[in-house]
Write a structure and sequence with these properties.
The complex is a heterodimer of chains A (97) and B (552). Chain A has two helices and five strands. By secondary structure, chain A is α+β, with helices and mostly antiparallel strands. Chain A is globular. Classes of the chains: A alpha+beta (97), B alpha+beta (552).
Chain lengths: 97, 552
C-alpha cells in the first residue's frame, strides 16, 4: 500500500532500459508527459493505480515506482506539488550541455 | 603515469564482461531490480533524478590525453555532450542509458579505465594532490603510494563489505590540496628526523551530517608498513564500526565514540598481531611503480623568461590569468597550469566533449600528454613551459577555458544538487551561478583575494560546505528551498568545520548575503593580504552576523 499522502496522486517511475522519467496512465502504460498520467483522488483509486504500477515493475518496464501529490494549475494542467517533483518533471533548471 | 599491466587489463575486461551479462539478465527479467541494484552500484551506476548516472574512477586524479579523449567520445556518443568532474577527482556522466552501459565500460576498458569502487561500502578511489610530483612545496611525490593503495584496495576481499564507504586521500606537501583531514584516512608523506620516508596518518575525518576533522592516529609509519597499518585501521573499523545505523556507520563516528586514544590502542594492538610480511608490498613492487612516475625529461630553460614578462605586460587578461591560475613549478622554466572549470555563470565542474578533446590536444602539445583532475573540480596541466604559457592561454581562452579565477570567490565547489541528485533537498548549481555572476568582475575578485565558497544541496555535503571559508547548505522547508550559511571552514592544512551564522536565506537572497559578508570582510581586514578566513578566525562570527541580520 502506498504511503498516505495528502492530495490527488499520480504514480511515477523510470524506464528500466533508458532511465527516463515516466508516469502511469489509466491503461497501465507509462508516458513521458505528466499530463497523460492517471490521477487518483481517493484511497481505492490509489490502490488500483498502485497495482498497475507494480505490474510495470514485475514486467521489468519501470523501476523506482512511487506516488506523489499533484495539483491543477491555473491553466488546468497537472503540476507537482513539491520542488523535487517539479524538477523531475521539467528537467534540470539550468542549461546543462 | 601508471600504465596497466596484463593483470589490470584482464581484470577490468573481465569485470566489463560480467557487467554486460548482468545487464542482459536484468533487461530480460532474470534479475530483479533488488538483485541488480548492488551489482550496478559496484560498477558506478546510479539511478538519479532524471536518468542513470555513471561515475568513472580517475585514480588520484590523473588522466592521459588518450583517456580524456575517450571520456569526450563517451560524452558525445552516449551522453549529452558533457561530463561533470567531481570532488573525488572522478567524472560523472548524467544521462547514459542502461542498455548502453556495457558498451561504455568496454570503451573505458580500452583506455585502462573503469567505474569499480566508485560506489558502495568499499575503499573508494584514492585521491591526491593535483600538483603531485611538480609542486614547489612538495617533500615527496605521493603518486606511487596512491597507486600502491589503488592496487591493494581493488576488490580487497576483507574490505569489500565495510560498514560504510571509505575514502583515502594522500599528499606529499605541507600545503594540503587534497583535504586529507576530511577523509576516513588521510596520509601525509614525509621524512622523519633520520630522513626516512613514511607517513603521518590521520583517521576519522569526514563531512556529511556529522563533520569531523581527522585526528592523528600515527605520527610516523614507515613505507614498508603502510599497507599493514592500513589493514590494522580498516580491520578495527570493519569489526567495530556500527552497522545498525547508516548515519553512524562511518569510521569518524567510531573514532569519536571510542576516543582517539582507545581507537589508536586498538589499531596498534591489531597491527602488532599482524603477519606483516604477508601484507607488505612484494619486494621491488614499489620501485616498479615508482618508475612510472618519473618526471618527464624537462629541458634546461630560463626561469621567468623575458618573453613571458613582455606578454604579461602587453596583455592584462593574460597577466590576470597567470597571476591566478599558474602555479610555481619545481623545475625552472616550467609552470603548473590550472584550467578553471568555473566559467562565470557556468556549471562548476562541467566540461563539454569539445573542451575535453581540446584539453587532451593541449596536454599533448604542451604538457607531456597528462591531465590532472582536482577535488575542487578543475583541471591541471602539470608540465608547461613558461615560454609557451601565452600560446596555451590563447587556446584555452578561445574555448571558454581561460577563466582567471582559481582560488577566487567564483571558483566554487558545487555538488549537482536537486537539479540531478535524488538525495538533494535543494538546488546548488543555480546558487553558484548567481554568485558567480554577481562577482564576475575580475578586479573585484582580485580585490577580495583567496576565498573558498563551497555549496551542498543536502546534509550529505558532497559540495564540502563545512570546509568552505563560506559554506552554503541547501535545505528544504515545506517544499521551499532555503540556504544556511556557515563561516570559517577550511579543507586545507588548517582544516576546520565552519560554524552556522544564523537563519537561512531564500534562493534569491543568497548571492546578496554573500555580497554583504564580503563587504564586511573588506571593512574588517587590516591588510589586503589578510584572507577572508584569517579575518573570520581573528574577529569571530559576530561582526558578520551583525552585517547580515542587522535588519532582521
Amino acid at each position: 500500500m502506498a504511503k498516505k499522502l495528502k492530495g490527488d496522486q499520480v504514480f511515477t517511475g523510470q524506464l528500466l532500459r533508458e532511465g527516463d522519467v515516466v508516469y502511469l496512465t489509466a491503461d497501465g502504460s507509462w508516458a513521458p508527459d505528466l499530463q497523460n498520467a492517471c490521477v487518483a483522488t481517493n484511497d481505492q483509486e490509489i490502490e488500483t493505480l498502485e497495482g498497475l504500477a507494480n505490474e510495470g515493475v514485475l514486467k521489468n518496464l519501470v523501476v523506482d515506482v512511487y506516488p506523489f501529490v499533484v495539483v491543477r494549475n491555473e491553466a488546468g494542467d497537472l503540476a507537482p506539488d513539491h520542488i523535487r517533483e517539479k524538477l523531475r518533471t521539467a528537467g534540470p533548471s539550468i542549461v546543462y550541455s | 603515469m601508471y600504465i596497466y599491466d596484463d593483470f589490470d587489463e584482464t581484470f577490468v575486461r573481465e569485470r566489463a564482461a560480467q557487467f554486460r551479462d548482468q545487464v542482459e539478465r536484468r533487461l530480460s527479467g532474470e534479475l530483479s531490480e533488488e538483485q541488480f541494484r548492488p551489482l550496478r552500484l559496484m560498477n558506478g551506476v546510479y539511478l538519479q533524478l532524471h536518468a542513470y548516472m555513471l561515475r568513472v574512477a580517475v585514480p588520484y586524479g590523473t588522466l592521459s590525453s588518450k583517456q580524456l579523449r575517450q571520456l569526450a567520445m563517451i560524452a558525445k556518443k552516449y551522453d549529452k555532450g558533457y561530463g561533470h568532474f567531481t570532488t573525488r577527482q572522478n567524472i560523472q556522466f548524467n544521462w547514459p542509458k542502461l542498455e548502453d552501459l556495457p558498451d561504455i565500460l568496454d570503451d573505458l576498458a580500452d583506455v585502462g579505465m573503469h567505474a569499480i569502487q566508485t560506489s558502495g561500502n568499499c575503499i573508494r578511489n584514492v585521491t591526491s594532490d593535483q600538483w603531485a610530483g611538480v609542486a614547489s612545496d612538495e617533500v615527496i611525490d605521493p603518486r606511487p603510494y596512491a597507486e600502491l593503495m589503488r592496487q591493494w584496495s581493488s576488490l580487497h576481499p576483507e574490505f569489500s563489505y565495510l560498514p560504510r564507504k571509505f575514502k583515502i586521500a594522500i599528499t606529499g606537501a605541507d600545503s594540503d590540496r587534497a583535504a586529507i583531514a576530511f577523509h576516513d584516512i588521510g596520509l601525509q608523506v614525509m621524512k622523519n628526523k633520520t630522513q626516512e620516508i613514511g607517513f603521518r596518518v590521520f583517521v576519522g575525518g569526514g563531512l556529511g551530517r556529522t563533520p569531523m576533522v581527522g585526528k592523528v592516529v600515527r605520527d610516523f609509519i614507515g613505507v614498508e608498513d603502510l599497507l599493514p597499518y592500513l589493514v590494522a585501521i580498516l580491520r578495527a573499523y570493519n569489526l567495530e564500526g556500527r552497522r545498525d545505523n547508516k548515519y553512524k556507520a562511518r569510521i569518524k563516528i567510531l573514532v569519536h565514540e571510542k576516543g582517539i586514544e582507545a581507537f589508536q590502542a586498538r589499531v596498534e594492538e591489531i597491527f602488532e598481531g599482524l603477519d606483516k610480511d604477508s601484507l607488505r608490498a612484494q619486494k621491488g613492487e614499489l620501485e616498479r611503480i615508482e618508475a612510472f612516475f618519473t618526471l618527464p625529461d624537462y629541458e634546461t630553460l630560463d626561469d621567468k623568461p623575458a618573453s613571458l614578462s613582455k606578454e604579461r605586460a602587453e596583455n592584462s587578461a593574460f597577466h590576470a590569468w597567470v597571476m591566478r591560475n599558474v602555479a610555481r613549478h619545481r623545475q625552472a622554466g616550467y609552470a603548473i597550469v590550472n584550467i578553471s572549470l568555473k566559467p562565470h555563470g557556468g556549471i562548476p565542474g562541467d566540461a563539454t566533449d569539445e573542451q575535453m578533446d581540446l584539453v587532451a590536444d593541449l596536454a599533448d602539445a604542451y604538457s607531456h600528454g597528462e591531465i590532472r583532475v582536482t577535488h575542487e573540480q578543475n583541471l591541471v596541466l602539470a608540465h608547461v613551459r613558461q615560454d609557451q604559457l601565452f600560446e596555451l592561454w590563447q587556446k584555452l581562452e578561445a574555448a571558454g577555458l581561460g577563466t582567471a579565477n582559481l582560488g577566487a570567490i567564483t571558483d566554487m565547489i558545487t555538488c549537482p544538487g536537486l537539479d540531478f541528485c535524488t538525495l538533494a533537498t535543494a538546488r546548488s548549481i543555480p546558487i553558484a551561478q548567481k554568485i558567480s555572476n554577481k562577482f564576475s568582475d575580475i578586479e573585484r575578485q582580485n580585490e577580495i583575494g583567496d576565498m573558498k565558497i563551497k555549496i551542498s544541496g543536502c546534509i550529505n555535503a558532497c559540495g564540502h560546505h563545512h570546509a568552505g571559508h563560506i559554506g552554503i547548505l541547501g535545505l528544504n522547508k515545506k517544499g521551499e528551498e532555503y540556504y544556511q550559511i556557515t563561516l570559517g571552514g577550511s579543507g586545507a592544512e588548517d582544516a576546520a568545520v565552519g560554524e552556522i551564522l544564523g537563519p537561512g536565506f531564500a534562493a534569491d537572497d543568497v548571492a546578496g548575503a554573500i555580497d554583504t559578508l564580503v563587504n564586511r570582510y573588506i571593512q574588517l581586514r587590516t591588510t589586503a593580504d589578510e584572507r577572508f578566513l584569517d579575518v573570520v578566525n581573528r574577529v569571530g562570527l559576530e561582526p558578520f552576523k551583525e552585517a547580515l541580520y542587522a535588519d532582521h
